[in-house]
Design a protein that fits this description.
Two copies of one chain form a homodimer. With 322 residues, chain A is of the alpha/beta class. Chain A contains ten helices and twelve strands. In chain A, the strands form three sheets. Chain A has a five-stranded mixed sheet with strand order 3-2-1-4-7, sandwiched between helices. Chain A has a five-stranded mixed sheet with strand order 10-9-8-11-12, with helices on both faces. Chain A has a two-stranded antiparallel ribbon with strand order 5-6. In chain A, helix 5 crosses helix 7, helix 6 packs across helix 7 and helix 7 crosses helix 8.
């Protein structure tokens, strides 16, 4: 975010995933100046994981110093349950040792720089709303379809965090009140029907209970990518699976539209790369929603791909300064 | 809202219902100083309806003048589809002549006072969040159970209106993706299962398909009030109906909790007077939601009853000044 005199500023963004850490030097215009990526060591504990991340940050800071770039601070996007203002990671399903880590305190001390923590899905949403698909919109809801369904709610260019920093759990809104059990303990969650995992499960079920010919029967492994590739080749069963995903996701997005009346919904994650998904998805939403709410609603794929988390983490830092 | 020097200010609030108009002089502390109520004339057109409201406002202004109270402006809560910033009522199902009425222009000219338009459900939510059940909370979601299910989303003490002023349509979030048709054109909406109308319908169906003894069989007319009164008398069928309403509403509230992680959900409307509803409702939400989101969530009945719309309309005016 430009300062009052409009000079460009710089921050370190850190995107902590389940398997990799990305660290980058990001400008206040959202440009990646320099970036690093390293796998998260399989053998680790809380201390070594923090050190590992810190070493990458140091490398990025050293690079900036060499180039005489002044770094204003650090933003980190982490999965899991967070206390954002306190800068604490409470727990994280994919990083079991990541429990009650006062991550802000650690990094502030280590680098003597201001630090902002953000949820990883929120960071991705922030970047899409900032310089990605939603850059011209005031209210952007991001939905990420992967192993699960994640989300981030950007209202007036900022994340809505909620009372305990737990808002934006879009994957766990109920679309089928008597539906299947979700891994979260709830049942009938959007995630059960619209995640990449759910799409593959639905296809496998159809293949089992159905005699229709399908390219999918010839594949050694059925993935969501394979399903979408087959749909592009007009495979009937694959088209049916895509249609079902669009309808279930459409029910979930209807809830977001009726609640927020947003300008834009951005769909991220691997599934969103399937362009075949968008026409039936938009139709499903239009069929359900009040016409005045879909009149100029845009439902579009995310633009920043793998970079979203990195850029968004830096954005979270820039926003935290205001 | 107190001005900088903390003196109390005054505004006219107008609550336009389907059958009555209420007009009141409201202080910036949320106190009703004076109020009037009159039925909406059955024989009317757009012009006579505007005149009718204006006459009541004039009466209230005259009263204020007599008491030497300076009125800062007027806030009006209207049902229907609105353009809030432009001050136009686009259409309203209960007031068929209320189509594309530039209500702000009319009243500004007539009274030479600033004017703010708000949706009636939003006005009710604003007042509950201001001086009612939610007065200590930062984020309050209001859900009103009546003929339909309405709502208002108060984030950081202000209504979230959405891109086309159409947000907060909580009654039309999908809880059963293959569910019954709703009058809005969508299907499986919360309103189909949790409105007063839906509760009566569910009870009648149970009575038809079920041989269980019930007080309800002895009544000339089954209303939601009668169902709740019977539940209080331990009538098994009435308890079952209450339980069902709680579960369906619980699914809807789960969506709001997972999306907003609010501090408080306020339930308004006649149904909410049924204290029996709250224990199973809270249990239903708790069963479905992430534990950290319900840890200190309050689900409580509205406090302002019939006054909510009136006070909230004035509040909308006070907020519009900032």
């Amino acid at each position: 975010m430009p300062s009052a005199n409009n000079t460009i500023q710089y921050a370190i963004g850190v995107d902590l995933g389940g398997t990799n850490v990305r660290v980058g030097l990001i400008s206040s215009k959202g440009k990646i100046i320099h970036s690093l990526k390293a796998p998260i060591p399989k053998k680790r504990n809380r201390r070594t994981l923090l050190h590992h991340i810190a070493d990458l940050i140091q490398e990025s800071l050293d690079w900036a110093e060499q180039k005489k770039i002044k770094v204003q601070g650090i933003g980190l996007g982490s999965p899991g349950v967070l206390s954002i203002k306190k800068g604490i990671v409470r727990q994280s399903p994919n990083l079991p040792e990541w429990v009650n880590v006062s991550i802000a305190d650690y990094f502030k001390k280590r680098f003597n720089l201001p630090f902002a923590l953000e949820n990883d899905a929120n960071a991705a949403a922030l970047s899409e709303a900032w310089i990605g698909a939603g850059k011209k919109s005031n209210s952007v809801i991001c939905v990420t379809l992967g192993t699960g369904v994640g989300g981030g709610i950007v209202l007036n260019h900022k994340i809505w965090h909620g009372h305990n920093d737990g808002g934006g759990e879009i994957g766990h809104i109920v679309v089928r009140d008597q539906g299947e059990k979700c891994r979260c303990g709830n049942w009938g969650c959007l995630e059960v029907y619209a995640s990449a995992t759910a799409i593959v499960r639905y296809a496998k079920n159809l293949l089992k209970t159905n005699q229709t010919k399908s390219i999918l029967r010839t594949l050694p492994k059925i993935t969501s990518e394979a399903i979408f590739a087959s749909a592009r080749k007009k495979d009937k069963l694959a088209i049916k699976v895509t249609q079902h995903a669009a309808e279930m996701l459409g029910a979930g997005l209807t809830n977001l539209v009726h609640i927020f009346n947003p300008e834009m919904i951005v769909i991220g994650g691997g599934v969103s790369l399937n362009q075949n998904l968008f026409p039936p998805l938009r139709a499903a939403v239009k069929k359900r929603c009040f016409p005045q709410l879909t009149r100029d609603l845009k439902i579009v794929p995310a633009q920043l791909g793998d970079h979203a988390g990195l850029i968004g983490s830096a954005r979270a830092f820039f926003l935290s300064k205001n």
